[in-house]
Write a structure and sequence with these properties.
Layout lengths: L1 H14 L7 E3 L1 H6 L8 E7 L3 H10 L3 E5 L3 E6 L2 E8 L2 H9 L1 E5 L2 E5 L2 H14 L4 H13 L6 H10 L3 H8 L10
Parallel strand pairs: 2-5
Antiparallel strand pairs: 1-2, 3-4, 4-5, 6-7
Helix pairs in contact: 5-6, 5-7, 7-8
């Protein structure tokens, strides 16, 4: 984990001066919500207005840009992955603004709320149904945070991605696979 911790510390220093402080998403954000699993990359949600500045910062830190679109970017430096989602749609901007500073195994970091993390995992799974790890992450987030989840908000995300039937199955403890659309 020290390699990831060093990568996070370096990223936090590079984030100084961005319009809105980025928020951790992805595998590392799971731990802040009671789900622990191994991951090899760092994922952040950033304000879309900061995309060009962050791109220059990451290139300056030795990362190679593998992909960049209006929605996301993927960078690699040796074996260190760095993925970014750009908050430009209203819901993503809201999730970024509402992200809270949490104590993590990597120190204090802004982390997207559990409902938002479920939404990002659901979007990734919808975009690529072979991402079974995201399916497992959604199950674990629902299970480990049942007492505190805003289920109306979670349900809105499942409706948005046409996966409401799967949510109902998950809540009954039977959700083996998302229903296709």
């Amino acid at each position: 984990m020290s390699k990831l911790a060093d990568q996070i510390r370096e990223a936090l220093a590079a984030f100084i001066g961005l319009r809105t402080p980025p928020a951790l998403i992805g595998g590392l954000a799971l731990a802040a919500h009671g789900v622990v699993r191994a991951t090899r990359d760092v994922d952040f949600l950033i304000d879309a207005h900061d995309a060009d500045r962050l791109h220059r910062l990451l290139i300056g830190l030795g990362y190679q840009c593998l992909h960049r679109s209006e929605d996301a970017a993927n960078y690699l430096r040796a074996d260190q992955g760095f993925d970014v989602l750009y908050a430009h749609r209203p819901e993503a901007v809201r999730l970024l603004v509402e992200a809270e500073t949490r104590e993590t195994g990597l120190g204090q970091l802004r982390v997207v709320g559990v409902e938002g993390l479920i939404a990002f995992k659901l979007q990734a799974l919808t975009n690529d149904p072979s991402r079974l790890r995201d399916m497992d992450d959604i199950r674990a987030l629902l299970r480990n945070n049942a007492a505190i989840l805003d289920m109306a908000r979670v349900r809105r995300y499942f409706v948005l991605f046409e996966r409401e039937a799967w949510l109902d199955e998950l809540l009954r403890g039977q959700g083996d696979a998302p229903q296709g659309h």
